[in-house]
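task queued by scheduler; priority normal; single chain, no ligands, no partner chains; default sampling; output format set to structure tokens
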Amino acid sequence: MTAQNSRLQAAASASVSTPRLSTRQVHIGSAKAGGREPVVIGGGAPVAVQSMLNTPTTEVALCCKTIEELAELGCELIRVAVPNEEALDAFESICAQSVLPVIADIHFNHKLALEAAKRGAAKLRINPGNIGSMERVDAIIDECGARGIPIRIGVNAGSLDAEYAARTDLTQPQKLAGSASAFVEHFQARGFKDIVLSAKAHDVSTTIETYRLLAHELPEIPLHLGVTEAGTLRQGTVKSALAIGALLYEGIGDTLRVSLTAPLAEEVRVAWDILAAVGLRRRTPELISCPTCGRCQVDLQSLALAVDERLQTIKKPLAVAVMGCVVNGPGEAREADVGVACGLGKGAIFSKGEVLYTVSESEIVDALFDEIAKLD
């Protein structure tokens, strides 16, 4: 029995992730910018959550309002498209007013990148593969280096460096990782080290394998995780949770964006749900609820939905359990801060496995929140 326990402990230890403490820290923004503290990516800092505005950059008031709403939900970095020269003045205004550090998203036109750096960008995101010549990339590197502005090298499966895209001897993950690594090498050879790296694809397996390669080849570079073009809310959430969650559990990744064809608030909520599910960060309650079975003698689905809706207003990292019967009650949900185990038209309110009192079915939700209010 002792030998078996030793083997089980060894197996458990081998499966537990460790933070990527070896990555270099990159500071996004500065304390001078609107009084904001910089967001730190890498080197053991908490995995940062970010999103990207989907409203026209020229609508400054709406952009700033959206940024404030996302910040309330836990977004820590915001990316803004700079598609043309007409957007530059608006981008500058957004940078000046934003409650979050603003990342300029640039494609094709290196002059826009240079201007964005001058107009308040806390960070740039470029894909060197579509900027044009490396001379143009070098101009961006030099401008950002002089101003202390980090750059995310963002490589996508659809816009690989031509040298790698044409190769038939490499898998797609190898092409993505090889192209990204080559760009990093070029940046570092030029003396630029404030790099965050991403290499995104739209499918789960390519994403996981690519980032595993990058983590192995470039252990010092902070990695930005994401599944690009993941889809609408349900499909995109599943794909993002699988890919990002697996990588985070392996200790890979320093910041993330969940890309959804859905309201931006959902991107931030799903990102935090993923971080909480892998045990890295939690800022809102976790709802533990059973799927119900023939033993259940209350309307548990309605109860769980009512509790979940009210929990949206709570900003405490609590565990709240709504269980259909005593089988799945205080026993399986013993660690919950507050919970209920239901019976015939009633519920036993419990905390940390200890039953406190019993209330009628109609009183369950209020009783749970009365107990939540007592917690620090």
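post-processing summary
- Residues 172-189 form the longest helix (18 residues).
- DSSP finds 13 helices and 15 strands in the chain.
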